[in-house]
């Protein structure tokens, strides 16, 4: 097997990446339980080797999962209604006592509601056509689940911020240097996907080139050497 790990940086790249993963998902073939015998054996195989871009795993309930080999970066608020912990990895509440014995105050940001497209997918219905009015984020039309490790939010900047926009190349370059000094980004984000590969073929990088994400992606690329 020759696996490929995909790195996506920022809104523009994630819109593109969503189309890529949706296209990959469209090539999945599923066994029809009503077809048996020789007819089942001659079913048309998928033209895509999904093991290259997708990884098997085990969900929170012990069920098998199959998710993209991807590391997706975006700013705070850039993931829309997509949650880091999805339906396949939703942890169960064990009812354990809180570690902090005192009183707490919880502050929650306004919840972003799923798009009509996502609501239809969750309900098992035919999704409505996409329009510029119904697509607010790239996650509004994503048809695949991602592993929690795939979603990497940059908390230092907020999407569409007017006070501190994430725009200049140097800002991305500097942000990577600061975060890497604190967390070792490649070791934290990329290494788990690389180590689980049998024979890594390479990295697929999706990024803009003339803005802050270009600087961030360039530093990431250079650090992989």
TrEMBL record:
Give the UniProt keywords, A-Z: Mitochondrion
Concerning Pfam families, the annotation shows: Misat_Tub_SegII (PF10644), Tubulin_3 (PF14881)
What does the record list as GO biological process?
mitochondrion organization
**Listed InterPro entries:** DML1/Misato, DML1/Misato_tubulin, Misato_II_tubulin-like, Tubulin/FtsZ_GTPase_sf
- Which SUPFAM superfamilies does this chain map to? Tubulin nucleotide-binding domain-like (SSF52490)
Which residues belong to any copy of the DML1/Misato tubulin domain?
A: 127-219
| Gene Ontology cellular-component annotations | mitochondrion
Q: Which domain of life is it from?
A: Eukaryota
The cellular location(s) given in this protein's UniProt record come to: Mitochondrion
Misato Segment II tubulin-like domain residues are 2-122
Per its database record, what is this protein's job? Involved in the partitioning of the mitochondrial organelle and mitochondrial DNA (mtDNA) inheritance.
Q: Which family does it belong to?
A: Belongs to the misato family.
Protein name as annotated: Heterokaryon incompatibility
* Species per Swiss-Prot/TrEMBL record: Macrophomina phaseolina (strain MS6)
């Amino acid at each position: 097997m020759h696996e490929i790990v995909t790195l996506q940086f920022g809104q523009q790249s994630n819109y593109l990446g969503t189309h890529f993963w949706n296209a990959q998902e469209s090539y999945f073939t599923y066994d029809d339980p009503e077809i048996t015998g020789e007819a089942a054996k001659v079913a048309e195989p998928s033209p895509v080797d999904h093991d290259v871009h997708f990884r098997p795993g085990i969900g929170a309930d012990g069920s098998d999962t199959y998710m993209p080999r991807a590391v997706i970066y975006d700013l705070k608020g850039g993931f829309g209604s997509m949650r880091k912990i999805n339906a396949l990895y939703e942890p169960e509440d064990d009812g354990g006592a809180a570690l902090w014995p005192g009183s707490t105050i919880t502050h929650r940001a306004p919840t972003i509601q799923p798009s009509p497209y996502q609501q239809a997918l969750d309900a098992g219905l035919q999704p409505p056509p996409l329009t510029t009015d119904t697509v607010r984020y790239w996650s509004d039309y994503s048809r695949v689940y991602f592993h929690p490790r795939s979603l990497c939010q940059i908390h230092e900047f907020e999407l569409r911020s007017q006070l501190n926009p994430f725009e200049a190349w140097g800002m991305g370059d500097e942000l990577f240097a600061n975060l890497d000094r604190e967390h070792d980004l490649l070791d934290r984000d990329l290494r788990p996907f690389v180590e689980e590969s049998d024979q890594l073929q390479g990295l697929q990088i999706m990024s803009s080139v003339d803005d802050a994400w270009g600087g961030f992606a360039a530093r990431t690329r250079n650090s992989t050497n």
